[in-house]
């Protein structure tokens, strides 16, 4: 009986069960049945296993029968277990506790389950009723009254339990009306909490009906509220992980025990879910929380409990899901009003100090702090932060750190002619493909494992003795570095390897084969939601790539020798050089096809020459490299094709081109850095002379760390970091099918030949034809799967949610794609780049790699700053600019730029110098940060050259103005699509020159029109209404001008009356003329754009929005702040609107939902 | 295993040589070595460059780092 195979199979089937639960989810009410099924199947597996053992020796037929049945039982058990575990972790179902039945005069409340604790209830209409049902629930509430300690805070007993007094009181719910108009399944929240239900008061209702009563789980996720419906809560809980300390904030993870909800309401015992609490240095007592010692402490917090946002845009990052995968369901940002006590305080058990955390964790974290202290004492910043990141997992310490290339001779990159980059080290790491060294993973754990083994071997300890110590050290390392899935995977696998190596004398491959599935099983049994987490997937992708692909890749490469090897080297180098100098060319089919043909031809010629005895020696071969080097290169190729290419594109929509080359140096280098760091840190703990040894090793390590940072920085300046099309899951599945075929090509080929022999297919090429047929069949899912874009034909407009800024994608019925404005880019503080963070990932998600046009309505940064980043990454055929940018060129000085754009000094004086300068930096270029993209430079590189035309990279730039028609087309039904330019007319001088001279657009399709006035200010709005007739302005949808935050004067705090007056005087005429049915506000946090005026912009927006809501009705006013991305579709006669918030709600992510929470995927 | 031991030996030997050279020729490291010897690590150039990095991890004698936003 091969147990190893069964263990491996069982683990993989458990993962299969999780995948099935993701693909085909069942209602949570099936959970009890799923548990029974899993229990029965696993029980049967255990019994069969036992029978096999017991009968094994004396009753062979019985044992064989038992073992034959073992596989099916194990398969079912593992599948059911995976399915059940994922379903139970993925939802927090409400529990039905009873029913209200109405049968003539008999109306009863039949309770099937007692309430376990103080609970909230909801009713669900279970049957149709011909009249409204009106009832009250009656019962008791055991209200928890917290005991107040001597210091005024809540008190705990000496064992660390929160102290309450209980007050029992009768309670009666409000009248609950179950409307006869509501459908079956409608839900009704009961406003009062209950600890016991004693009955029901019948008020009024039909002769027949049924209502189910549910208890809402006291999971923390059921207490959160979206940002605009906040109510302060009090949480009593404990800090359950190491505080994450940044230089401007600290993030604490709290496991709550009780929550008072709402303020002044009852205390509920929390049944699950953690809270992430973010505090800032301004809070009293901040330093007490911003330290490792805070781990384990009990505390009380008051504040608003909110929830992370799901995707703001299609295909965007789902922060809520990401956090929920780590059991974080609530967010708090406690705020201390001036003169008030702090909203957080520690609470100690009676007569004791504040509780410490788990002893092993506390020991590990203390050890980490001592080593960090040594690093800080012996290694300069930022190399110390790099060392802390790769050795201790403190990657947050690198936030804000820049490459230390400054010197009197100027920055290093500048000195070698690469310009100056303001990128931070973390940006360098990301774009050079070495970011993985900061995410402590298998690489680090393996380096440390090898290091510890070497140290013990050096000291002549037998492996049976030292292996437990090494495993203990790895566990401590995992705790120190935050126990992420990637670290846990590596520690489990390395521990299994050490155990099998030391005590069973097994090799590495055997331990990898069993270690991978067992590690995955152990991580996923604890938290099945991380199955789609990048940390988990990338880690397992890397190890499986190394274990499975390295060997066949090495064998393939070892066949290369002589001329053929040289030809391959030439091709790789040439492709790399072309990729660096003209990335877009190597992604053009018109280049790829002839290049592949050229490559094949070169390879054949090289081979032919070699066969004739011409060329270089056959000793010039890949196999002639030292084995360690050749295997390492093969391993890097394995990681690229097995993990980086497919998964980086899937998770991050980008592929770090540099990674394939930089890692050849970076990985051995990081081995040295981590080992020297770890040994130096441990030696430093020796009292007395230890710190000198650390200094000695740190001094050497400083060289290696500096070289690592330099390598990442310079490669970022050389290599592109392109956005790529995000593959669909089905495409990844097909891709991995071909990878698997490559890995197992030998047995596969043998099988194919066998099939040909058995069928009598004697033709020489029969196996090749069969192989091609199989390959073709494997791609079938790509053709039969529904296409990525299944939207109905017609006009599609997507107003992206880009905070205070604008980006609108117009997709014409004929397939033209035009981007109007490009979002804001922030280079300091939050470093929020909407082009890279939102717009380009959205294009990757939609597989859009080319735009027919981009229109910038204004030079204002919130509209145009992202343009250069988009032009760096996307093929754009035409660029339209407002007239004021007609003279834009990269050689302009700031003065020339301002003069060309805002011709009169008196007018330019209306704009703060910083704002004009900011526009200059984005549009012309930054005098210092020459690596920062700018519109003028991007336009300059897109000229009509041969290479640009070959790559489809050439760009036509035009200025446009009133009366122009862009992208006109007609569909089969004769309905016309066009983008009309309504303004500006000729340059007109006046107040708010830049705002009022931007482009005003009207997107028209058939009878549908959408007015996009850009940043048009009050004066411009009235002029537009006066200038054009109603039919020229008539639009069903209006994008509210100037984000709905136009300031009627130049005051920092405009009063509400003057805003309303301006709206009545200037905006109302435009609204009357255009007559829109729907208004869209493009709004979000204005502070990064407007800085000090941000607060005023929020007030202006609130007033303006209220004005629009009053005029159009609340349902006809949408905003990209609350409704997120807004998708409009028109068939030319009617239009429909869908928002990203609606999509999120439809997937169970309703921010206001309090029950049947759907979490994870 | 033997290869690992050999590699570790080489790395350590090289590190010791390079470390000595860096301490001899780099003023910040030289200053730090002197500061450690004199028992005032928190006054060294290296510690100074690290003052804002994980400021809560500090030598006991040192005054707390003040944040400014």
List the helices and strands and how they pair.
The complex is a heterodimer of chains A (1161) and B (69).
Chain A: H1 3-23, H2 31-55, H3 60-90, E1 91-92, E2 95-103, E3 106-111, E4 120-125, E5 133-146, E6 164-172, E7 176-178, E8 187-189, E9 196-204, E10 208-216, E11 232-239, E12 244-245, E13 250-260, E14 267-269, E15 274-279, H4 286-289, E16 298-306, H5 319-324, E17 328-332, E18 344-347, H6 359-378, H7 383-392, H8 412-415, H9 425-431, H10 442-458, H11 463-480, H12 485-503, H13 508-526, H14 534-558, H15 562-581, H16 583-586, H17 589-611, H18 627-652, H19 659-683, H20 690-718, H21 729-743, H22 745-759, H23 766-778, H24 780-784, E19 795-799, E20 808-811, E21 817-820, H25 834-845, E22 850-855, H26 861-864, H27 867-873, E23 875-881, H28 894-901, H29 905-908, H30 913-923, H31 935-940, H32 946-950, E24 956-959, E25 965-970, E26 976-983, H33 993-996, E27 1000-1005, E28 1008-1012, H34 1018-1027, H35 1030-1033, E29 1037-1039, H36 1056-1074, E30 1078-1081, H37 1087-1090, H38 1094-1112, E31 1117-1119, E32 1126-1130, E33 1135-1139, H39 1140-1146, E34 1157-1158
Parallel strand pairs in A: 15-17, 21-22, 22-23, 23-24, 28-29, 29-30, 30-31
Antiparallel strand pairs in A: 1-34, 2-3, 2-10, 4-8, 4-10, 5-6, 5-7, 5-9, 11-13, 11-16, 12-13, 13-14, 13-15, 16-17, 16-18, 19-20, 19-32, 20-21, 25-26, 26-27, 27-28, 32-33
Chain B: H1 2-25, H2 27-37, H3 45-49
